[in-house]
Fold:
Amino acid sequence: MKTNIKNSHPGKENQRKQNRKNFLIWVWLAAVLAITTALWTPARSQEQEVEVLKGIIVCLPSGAQIKVDWVMPPVEPSTLEKYGGRVKFSIDQDGLPVIGLGNRLILNPVKGYRGLLSEPFQNFFHVGNNLLLFSTGEDFGFIPPVSRLARDLETGFPIFPYQPIALIPESNPADDYLVTERSLFRGENCLYFKISRLYQNSNPEYAQEVIYCLKGEPLTDAEVSSANEPEPDTKEVKSSSFSQTTVVVNGQVVYSSSSTDYGESGPEPGMEEGQTEESLTEKFVKTLAFKPVLITEPVSVEEVGQNRIQAVTGDGERTFYAAGDSIYELEPGATEPVLLYSHPEGQEIRALEFSQESGLVYSTFDSVGVAAKNAGLEFLKSAWPPEIFLTQGNLYVMFTGNAGIIRFENIGVLKKYNSPEREILKVDGRKLGGVNRIMIWPLVFLLLFGLWLVALVKLLKSDSQGGGKVFYLLWLLLGSFALTLALLSRLFLGYLLLGDIFLLFSGAIILSYFIFSRPKKESRKQKN
Structure:
């Protein structure tokens, strides 16, 4: 008996398997390309990105009526080197900048004065009725009006006298702890003080932080006096003059004086030569109430790290503070802070500014944004750490690398674009949103790297010879180079958009290899 067994042709069977394999590869690569393209394509439907200066990118909603202009142009970074890169600034009620270099030099490039503060300052800013307030780490004060300025022998600059107003809280700490830091921060119609305590008698040592608030009562216009800022150093009064100063700190009178300067004629008869201006000063004292709004739980010194409070602001009722990459809010009457916003990339929040009109503005080491409950919108990216100052509905940003200052007028309109319903956007317009969004990029990178390895092994195991194999080998090496540049640009150099471009380029290279290459596999003949 003969039995006919119908066998399929080996060549056709292999062809069908190869077709199925190619189909799966096509589907796989199409999915990778779609994800990569989605990553790279910026979500700029409502954003306009402008590079205002090399290294500075501004990205604002197209419908927002925000005007951006320069207040002070950049200077050569080399001119700031002798001050150790320490640059501070503030804006007066006329919108003019006051620059602080190092810990003593103060200048106003528009009004045309510069000089040295008689005491090293830690921080300074304008408050209340245009009062330029300084802090030294132990006390805070101002520059009183004077008729004649002494000059520094080394630089020839005039010396602005420093008049303390009051000691910063906990200037005389308890016996069981030391105060390691006293910082002054600016709020809306109030001042904030951060005190860092160190308990050395415990084992291990632990630290604690306290936030105090100083808020005054409003005054009538008749009680408010101006002229609390230095005059240009070219102005000197030679004759006898009389000056009276009323100092207003955030709406509260804390110091008042009247004094007579006798110019070149000298003191009046009967006055001792060594008598100081302080003896001619009449003071009235108004109680300063430093209200503690937050006392943190003591933690070991090793655990403080990134959770140290970096910035504080508020209006005396609501208080905001930044610790690590998060911003917390203390509502009126609350004893525990509430997490308001966490930076999606884990960047440390370095500064805060707040007003009811403009909302809450923050800055990191390289960006500026607005924050609300579980929502944030970054609109500026800088190659240099930015300093921020908020006043009269305008936001001023200074770039510490070159001392350039730009102004964002009507910055408060960004509040309507910043809500929990929208995804968080980076300055370059890409969506962040959450952990899933952040994890897509490394997953795509690993997927492309795995495909590259498969292609390389497939090529090396093939029987292809000559120039064709060399060409595809060089082609795959170009793909690996693009992957390397994508990783370096994205993770180590901070060029996010450039990293996405390189990733897309490497995906195109690997995809084209699988489409066009036809390497021959080694075949082994079995002889029976």
In short: The CA atoms of residues 129 and 221 lie 10 Å apart. The chain has a mean pLDDT of 76.
